[in-house]
Design a protein that fits this description.
alpha/beta; 12 helices; 28% helix; Exostosin GT47 domain-containing protein; Exostosin_GT47
Amino acid sequence: MKNFIHKNGVFVQFDVKEKVGMKNLELLKVKNRSNKGEILSTCVSPYYDWELFAADYEEMMKTLKIFVYPDAFMSNKFSTFSSIFLPHTNPFDPKLGNYFSEHMFKIALLGSSFVTKKPEEAHFYFMPFSINVMRNHPRVHSASVIEDFVAGYTDRVSSEFSFWNASGGADHFYVYCHSIGRDAASKHQKLHHNSIQVTCSSSYFQRLYIAHKDIGLPQVWPRQHQEVVNPPDARHKLVFFAGRVQNSLARRDLLELWKNDSSFDIFSGSSSFPYKEGFRRSRYCLHVKGYEVNTARVSDAIQHGCVPVLISNYYDLPLANILDWSKFSIIVNERDVPHLKKILLSVPKQTYLNMYKNLGIVRKHLAWYSSPKKYDSFHMTVYQLWLKRGLHRVDW
């Protein structure tokens, strides 16, 4: 017989006769470098190495330069396609939903100190087209026309500017959250193979996503303020999930297996109470792959203090080279949905409390602001670019 145990943030199967060490679940000693000596942490750090990251982040803030192609600054009367490149006029419009992050990144970048007018000093070059705007543009909106438009724009950039040709586009990047954006680069080989796509649709299984080159973008719904979270003892439900089951075998299995369990709040479609309330009253909130591997549920759960349970194979988690997701979430293979309750109940109480505390630490990294703040989603995403700097270029 196989059981499950939580070992350092990862669930593994083991034989009941096997001795399982719990050493990794002990509280870790961390060194406080602010001359307060060594202290015992009450919360296993959600960072792989905070001090190394923080020092490199400060260097980025002083050094990084990004050149933005001039289409992002043109007058909206210049062309019928101007809106595709310009920043969104109302990024907190609730109708933007899952595509909010795409627009907020552009707004934050254009107003930041990273932008340079001297392309020769830039580490990276931003191609400012918006897939979400294209999807709603009367002359571009179909998937095939978007692919043609992006390929044509890339050809124009490479012919009018020397920066693209100096690196073959390897120091260029574009940003999107719209699902149609998955294939945006499909008709331009160098854009696909060389340039960096910063995307919410970050899945190893996606044919145009290249994990070692591309970057996962935190997907967040429009939110003006941080939520006040319920403490653990006010969370009386074990699990919450509400979402469409179409195009998802894992979601159908979840609903079929657990819809009648009183410790689970599982809904096909909308919940019978306000969506926010499900996150506030539950210990664990499920992220289950639907049509796409990505949704804003992960950031919603974190903002409301509900430990995310990620049931999405091939998901390249955002900020995964900085954040140790096993310290504030649970990652479960889709085939283990039948064992979900056993897995969650096997989490020791102190481990759950550590994860809950870590949500309060990392939530600032999964939030966008009208005026960007230190370590927010914008700065953390730009830091992912910073880590990819140093490409060799020829002189132009």
